[in-house]
Specification:
binds zinc ion; 5-stranded antiparallel beta sheet; Dna Topoisomerase Vi A Subunit, Chain: A, domain 2; 14 helices; 3 domains; 5-stranded mixed beta sheet; DNA Primase, Chain A; DNA primase DNAg catalytic core, N-terminal domain; alpha+beta
């Protein structure tokens, strides 16, 4: 294993990995920039390219490229290694592959294949599917960043066995399709693999939003939408915005607010909180959660319910209340500026609890 770790590091340039997060400038024989691991205005973060290491004189963190990813993304060693191995096209020696591994890998590739089909169908059905989202202010680029697609109801025809279609959650056990005529949004696990979809009705179908049914790898009370993408931003800010829906996340992302996730069709659970807790585990700063649920009865209830749960694990809690029904409506009325303003005028969670 030692050897393979060295090989991966030899085939990785620490400056390009760090350069994805922060702009580095030459300073003598080193590169210098603002530390991506703590907040600073004057650069005290150095990358020594000859040794392929980093050192921050501000927060004292230092190490190699693997350590950098562990710090930046809050992931375990193995995950950081896997990430770099993939990037460098190096195969990691695996432990003995079990039947469970094979099943999981088939499952993952089937979900990926179906996601691709949905994406192609979206492009082929621009008229109603894309137009709807664009009318709500989402750019085509955002729609594609999130891997959105369109299920036209012909999933039955996908080249997969009935059993497979059932196991990945695109047909019900009675053989009926799950997502007919819906806009699909991939839901990813923490490593970025598709595990399910959220789906919005394009017409007036009820319910408006639908999630994949529970499968071997998807349980909605465990998953925070956008967690895989947002993780590094949450980690560097020690702050997370939790919204109610997919489109809230997408519009925030489009406005440049990246530390944002959504619960999607469920209230905040202990499982969600422990996922955030893991991310904040070794932080010296207070971890802040901003609740930005819908401005309606159920959103208010969900907020009141979530505040004590978050306070009890030691998080600071703030509340953002949209002037309109949700963040998408704020954007529709006041654009990017309105969304930025929403998150600059936060209420204190403790006060919200008192005033209820
Ligand atoms: Zn630092």
């Amino acid at each position: 294993m030692r050897e393979i770790i060295e090989k991966i590091k030899d085939n990785t340039s620490i400056e390009s990995i760090i350069g994805e997060t922060v702009a580095l400038k030459r300073s003598g024989s080193n590169l210098k920039g603002c530390c991506p691991l703590h907040h600073e205005r004057t650069p005290s973060f150095y990358v020594r390219t000859s040794a392929q290491t980093f050192h921050c004189y501000g927060c004292g963190k230092n190490g190699d490229v693997i350590q950098f990813l562990i710090e930046r993304d809050g992931i375990p060693f193995n995950e950081a290694l896997l990430f770099l191995a993939k990037k460098a096209n190096i195969e990691l020696p695996t432990r003995k592959i079990t039947d469970e591994d094979v099943k999981k890998s088939h499952h993952t590739s089937n979900l990926k294949a179906a996601t691709k089909v949905f994406q192609a169908r979206l492009l082929a059905n621009q008229s109603h599917a894309i137009t709807y989202w664009q009318s709500r202010g989402l750019l085509e680029e955002t729609i594609s960043d999130f891997g959105c697609g369109f299920a036209d109801g012909s999933e039955i025809d996908l080249l997969m066995s009935i059993e497979t279609k059932r196991s990945i959650g695109i047909i019900h056990s009675d053989g009926k399709t799950v997502f007919a005529h819906r806009f699909t949004i991939p839901i990813l696990d923490t490593t970025g693999n598709v595990i399910a979809w959220g789906a919005r009705a394009i017409g007036t179908a009820i319910p408006k939003y639908l999630n994949s049914p529970t499968t071997d790898i998807y349980e909605k009370s465990k998953v925070l939408f956008n967690f895989a993408f947002a993780r590094r931003y949450i980690r560097s800010k020690d702050e997370v915005i939790i919204t109610e829906g997919y489109s809230d996340v997408m519009i925030c992302w489009q406005c440049g607010i990246r530390y944002v996730v959504a619960t999607c069709g469920t209230s905040l659970t202990e499982k969600h909180i422990s996922e955030l807790k893991r991310l904040s585990a070794d932080s010296t700063r207070l971890f802040r959660v901003v609740l930005a649920f819908n401005n309606d009865d159920s959103g208010k209830k969900a907020t009141i319910r979530a505040i004590p749960m978050l306070l009890s694990v030691g998080f600071a809690v703030k509340v953002a209340v949209p002037a309109q029904k949700d963040i998408l409506d704020v954007f529709a009325k006041d654009g990017n500026e309105g969304v930025q303003q929403l998150f600059s005028q936060l209420k204190d969670g403790v006060n919200v609890l008192w005033m209820k």
